Amino acid sequence: MTRYLSVLVLALLAATAMAVPAQAHAELKSSNPASGAALAAPPEQIELVFSEAVQLPDGDAVTVTGADGTTLPVTQVHAVDRTITAKIDTAAAKSGAHTIAWSARSDDGDTVNGTFSFTMTVVAQSTSASAPPSAVTPSAPVSNAPPSTTSSDSGGVPVWVWILVGLAVVVGAILLVRRKPESP
């Protein structure tokens, strides 16, 4: 009986050592605009690059909220491999701090999400007829900020935790069974 239980424990340990799946979720690695960026003009497109392939979640994948609480219209949201892109209606953009809230579905089915902020200064259009039109060269976003941080919301206890708890219970039960009663 003891030999049978020992073999059973070893078989369970071997099976769980091979069966534990990777519990990594997609993480936001970079974005354009970057977290903390100071832009001279509104971005026409948002680009979010993740650590692994992602899919669009149920609901909004990208929302952009201005300092005054208004939400900018976001269209043409696509997920291709590790990148989510979305177009922004720049006509509605105003100067100030903006927050991008994003959400993506990892390959394992869990949804990860996060937020980051950037600021932009929108130059008011001049209606003066005396000022000649000037050529404006678009500039790339200037930022020394690190990539945005993410928060993931997996919605439960990882499978590997339950496997370890189960193994601890089995080993504890085996040790109790193997204990020899003390002789009087």
Automatic annotation (TrEMBL):
| Chain residue ranges for the region called Disordered | 129-154
Question: Where's the CopC domain?
Answer: 25-119
Pfam families referenced in this protein's UniProt entry, alphabetically: CopC (PF04234)
N-terminal signal peptide: 1-19
Its keywords, alphabetically, are: Copper, Membrane, Metal-binding, Signal, Transmembrane, Transmembrane helix
| A GO molecular function held by the record | copper ion binding
What's a BP term from Gene Ontology annotated to this protein?
response to copper ion
Where do transmembrane segments lie in this chain? 159-177
Superkingdom of origin: Bacteria
Composition skew (Low complexity), residue ranges: 129-152
Q: Where in the cell is it found?
A: Cell envelope
InterPro entries xrefs: CopC/D, CopC_dom, Cu-Rt/internalin_Ig-like, Ig_E-set
Q: What is its main location?
A: other
Q: What does UniProt give as GO cellular component? A: cell envelope; periplasmic space; plasma membrane
Q: Say if the entry is tagged with keyword Lipoprotein.
A: no
Protein name (database record): CopC domain-containing protein
